Each structure stands twice: as C-alpha cells, then as structure tokens.
Amino acid sequence: MANYKPDLSCQNAFIPVNFSEQILPGTFEYALCYIIENKLDLSGFDAWYNNDKTGTAAYSPAVMLKIILLGYAHGLISSRRIARACETNIMFMSVSGDVRPHYTSIAGFVAKMHEQIEPLFTQVLMICDEEELIGRHMFAIDG
Q: Which of 79, 92, 97, 107 has the fewest CB neighbours in a 10 Å radius?
C-alpha cells in the first residue's frame, strides 16, 4: 500500500507574515496606500477627534479610508463585510496594518465623515484613473 504524506489543508497554521511585503508595487492596493499616505490632506479629520487627554485612541483616518476604499473597490459596501475582510483577508490586513475595526466603527466613520470622505474618494479615483489602475468600470461616488 502506498504511503502518502497527510493532507493538512483543513488545519490552521501559524505563519510569520510581513504585512508590508504583501502590498506589491504596481497594484491598486499599493497605489491606494501611497495616495492616502502621501497625496491627500487628512488634517480635516483631526478636529473630530478630541481625545488627547481622555478617551481611548481612535482609529487613524488614513487606515479607515484605506479599508473603506479598498472594500468599495472590491464590491464590499457593507461595513460588516469590510470588518470581516479585515479579519480574514490578507490584503485588508496588510493595508490596515492588521487593525481590525468593529463594523460599527466603520459605519460610524462613514456616517460622521461623509462630507470629508467624498472629495477624497473622488481624488483617489481620479489619480487611479490617471495611472490606469482602475478598469473604467462603474464606480459610484454618491453612496
């Protein structure tokens, strides 16, 4: 009888992951991170967070924008689905730096910050379109 190594595909494995190595240059995810970190002015969000003396630390607006825009780009428009992707999808983990906001934090950010997010979303789309990183399919910016 043949002796085969066991199939361990149903088991969990602890593997070391360097999140920064998962986002490859030339991809939409890389461009999204670069644009949000280097091209956008996110100082308008600072006025909303007055927690320097009391309260818990807030999620960075840059991280929230990255996961929300990445989710939208992949057809995830539900805050629950985006939160789930931050827990299970290596690309979302990498983009967020393994920050895993609760779906209520994502929904609250979108609801409270929609006036700040909309022009930034438009800017990101225009830059990505210029760089030919999006396929000219439909992207809605009014949701």
A: 97
- Give the Cβ contact number of residue 82 at 10 Å: 24
Core vs surface per residue 96-113: b (16+ CB within 10 A) or e: beebbbeeebbbebbeeb
Q: What phi and psi values does residue 31 have, to the nearest 5 degrees?
A: -65, -40
Q: 86-116: per-residue pLDDT in tens?
A: 999 999 999 999 999 999 999 999 998 888 8
Q: Which of 90, 95, 114, 98 is nearest to 28 (CA)?
A: 95
- Summarize pLDDT for 46-60 with one digit per residue, the tens: 777 766 677 777 888
In contact, 36 and 65? CB cutoff 8 Å = yes
The answer to whether 120 and 40 are in contact (CB under 8 A) is yes
Please identify which residue in the block is written with the tokens 């950010």.
Answer: 109
